[in-house]
Every structure is written in C-alpha cells, then in structure tokens.
Amino acid sequence: MIEPGIYKEVMGSFPSGVTVVTTLDEDGGIVGITASAFSALSIDPALVLFCPNYASDTYPVLSRSGKFAIHLLCADQQAEAYAFAGKGKDKARGIEWHLSELGNPLLNKATAIIECDLWREYDGGDHAIVVGAVRNLILPKQEMTPMVYHRGRLGALPQIA
Fold first, then answer.
1. What CATH number did the domain enclosing 18 receive?
2. Helix, strand or coil for residue 30?
3. Which residue stretches, if any, does this entry annotate as coiled coil (predicted)?
4. Fewest C-beta atoms under 10 Å: which of 98, 117, 144, 155?
C-alpha cells in the first residue's frame, strides 16, 4: 500500500505547469478548476487532457457543459490559480474574464488558451481523465512568464538561457 502523504510529496517533486479550466454553468456563470495534471495528447486529431478530482464541485458542471477553455497560467496569475483551486460558486469574484466566439469564458491573462469540446472521459481512480478535442488556440500578443507548481508552491519559471 502506498502512503498517500508520501505519494503527494513525491508527485509534488515533479515541477509542472498550472492551468485553470473554465466553462459556463447552467445559469451562464463562470465555473472553473485549477489543474496541474494537464497534457498534450495527440496532434491528429488535436487532443489534450486534464484530470479533475471526482470530488470537485466543478467537475460535474464541466462534464455536462461539453466544452471548456484551458488556460496555461502566467506567473502573475496566482490569484486565479488559488481562486479556482477552492470550492464554492463565487470562485471568479474579482477576476476579469470575457466570452470567446465559441462561448467559453476566457480569463484575461494567460500564456496561452486552448478551447475544447469534450471528446472522451475515462476513469482514473479518484480523478477523471477528461480528453478535449481542440477547437481553438489563443496566444497572447506578448510573451509571458509561465507559472509552475513545485512542492506545494506556485512560482515563475526561471528564464532559461
């Protein structure tokens, strides 16, 4: 048996990017979840995946919505990362966002945004494996420093020479 605390510590030793996945709820309000379990999956067809916890209050809304936007966070978006990591309906209070042409709620800053339609869902233990079919890719006009998660902390990716 693997001890959960040690498992989390070992997995947290692997630096990863930080994403916020957003969609609209049935009332047209923004909902979202912070996820470091994200990956590109396939180029043809263009697919990506992320892994929300089944216990998340946002996961069922994402699943029902059928579409979502994945934001690759910049280092300046710690407020967004922490807000969407919490529970409750008002996670986006004070966070600026707008609707895309595809009807997804987009946060105003990110190093990149990937708009998806839900393609497949798979069981992954206590997490779902959500695969999105990429419908739109958005890059900002200016380059931004990405956010990383490592050992329980969020920070900026150091510049690589």
1. 2.30.110.10
2. strand
3. none
4. 98
How many beta carbons lie within 10 A of that of residue 50, not counting itself? 23
The candidate with the shortest Cα–Cα distance to 68, out of 58, 55, 82, 54, is 58
pLDDT band at 158 (very low <50, low <70, confident <90, very high): confident
pLDDT digits 0-9 by tens, 5-46: 999 889 888 888 999 999 999 999 999 999 989 999 999 999
Q: What DSSP string runs through 31-86?
A: EEEEES-EEEEETTTTEEEE--BTT-SSHHHHHHH-EEEEEE-BTT-HHHHHHHHS
User: Measured between alpha carbons, how far is 99 from 92 in angstroms, rounded to an integer?
Assistant: 14
Residue 144 corresponds to which tokens in the numbers above? 């931004």
